[in-house]
Specification:
Length: 192
């Protein structure tokens, strides 16, 4: 494919935002490219739901909001739009009516890994998520086994990774002052 044809396949962020509400499936947008999102398996859905319910119950009355899968986050100046599996924002501006479909300032983003997204979640997505000045923690959960990676931003903007891989592990999410047991994330999961 020549360069001129490849450039014609790119769309603007405005075109993406206009077309996304009309689409039958969700799409993520990265630097002019649109990527269709696949459905999720049983374990993925259960881990996502368990995580969101834990966060929602702990954050009630704090002014922070928990979002699951259907809410977009904007990266930089419309460089990318993603649908994180779970995210938390505590920024009052994210609650304004004009932010009804897109959030700009999450403190916490959680992605549940799947074979088709794992490399992107660890690579390009994490690179772009780090452009969010509001983001304090990024969590990757593997629904196939007890394994969680927590990336935490330090005061000097370095990111430190912590891992948890036993059912009795306790995870501290400092960005929202919360702790929970790993086993609670995996409730009702049947490991094969």
């Amino acid at each position: 494919m020549n360069q001129a044809v490849a450039e014609n396949l790119l769309i603007t962020a405005e075109e993406y935002l206009e077309g996304e509400p009309l689409a039958d499936i969700r799409h993520e947008y990265i630097e002019g490219e649109v990527h269709a999102m696949a459905g999720a398996g049983d374990a993925h859905v259960k881990v996502t739901l368990n995580t969101a319910l834990l966060l929602k119950s702990q954050l009630r009355g704090t002014g922070c909001s928990t979002y699951v899968a259907d809410m977009k986050v904007r990266i930089a100046d419309d460089e990318a739009f993603f649908y994180p599996d779970v995210m938390v924002t505590c920024d009052p501006d994210d609650q304004l009516p004009e932010q009804n479909y897109i959030k700009n300032s999450p403190k916490l983003i959680i992605e549940v890994l799947s074979p088709s997204t794992e490399n992107k979640d660890r690579g390009k997505k994490f690179i772009l998520y780090r452009k969010l000045s509001s983001l304090e923690e990024y969590v990757l959960i593997d629904p196939r086994e007890y394994y969680v990676e927590l990336y935490r931003k330090q005061d000097d903007n370095r990111w430190v990774m912590l891992t948890f891989d036993t059912s009795d592990a306790v995870i501290e999410i400092k960005s929202i002052q919360m702790t929970f047991n790993l086993v609670d994330l995996y409730e009702d999961i049947n490991f094969e």
